[in-house]
């Protein structure tokens, strides 16, 4: 225990401080660039205490995603309103999230981590499925809602990857509303249109 | 120089052997997990010779993508045939590439590397733009062909990321032809349909 920090091992404040350090570390360095040791140092605790709370790096990453304050569950709010506009509302809300100074860097870290680490990918997969897709699918009231949700989600992840991670010219430089207008009809079709699903 | 290998420094065969080792290393470990030292060891040469040929790790990655034999340029062949079917042909060809035992792991390594390394992302961006999008756009004969190509490409990257990297249930378990039927209309619209582009 780092005596300078004055934190008691095992207290909720200590767990909180570790999580805060973890969110910061994963956001800056991604999954591969983050170590338990560095997180412990930032939080002013012994690495063993990080292990005590979170088991291992995967457990810490999982907890950090949940603690990161990413308002992904709020994406479900786009279900409010007419169903013909759900695609447009979802694309707009999603791009706004990526473009927010608070959440954009965290989203980027999550996607980058998932691409380079199978453990991080498994976490992201579980998180997207349980926290985003299943609630959304439940509200859609259409057949094959989960499959529809994830095809739409695939499209949105690809847009973010090219626009915000790879930063490829034409997609990166489009105005947000122009991109919304391009992409919304495809997302709308995936969510509520005629699809050749069994 | 490793005397065991019997390779002459500076010979084309030596460069070839380094590249082969690099493609293998990047495919297995991604950008972050690959070192010049390990590539040199596999190729049986001194690390300084790797630097001599390729400058640094970024240069080696760039050369490895080009040497990997990924038949991305062949995606342009989908332009042959009626223009109403180009979306379907492109999606089918692209998914087949990801599902081939030879090319799938390499594609996965490229996408993972780009997600975790800005240098690798810059390479992938330049490669996609110059080698895939511009030739494709030139053949489409539509306005804003490059922007169309990259929006379609974004969608395809997202599908591959969810299906082959994250391996998320509903998208990962769809039959390839079912996924082609779902996604082709959206890609077709991006390539040749009415889009609100300036």
TrEMBL record, chains A, B:
Pfam families: TetR_C_16, TetR_N. Residues 35-54 bind DNA. Residues 12-72 form the HTH tetR-type domain. InterPro entries: Homeodomain-like_sf (IPR009057), HTH-type_TetR-like_transc_reg (IPR050109), HTH_TetR (IPR001647), Tet_transcr_reg_TetR-rel_C_sf (IPR036271), TetR_C_16 (IPR041678). Keywords: DNA-binding. It comes from the Bacteria. GO terms for molecular function: DNA-binding transcription factor activity; transcription cis-regulatory region binding. PANTHER family: HTH-TYPE TRANSCRIPTIONAL REGULATOR RUTR, TRANSCRIPTIONAL REGULATORY PROTEIN. This is TetR family transcriptional regulator. It comes from Planotetraspora kaengkrachanensis.
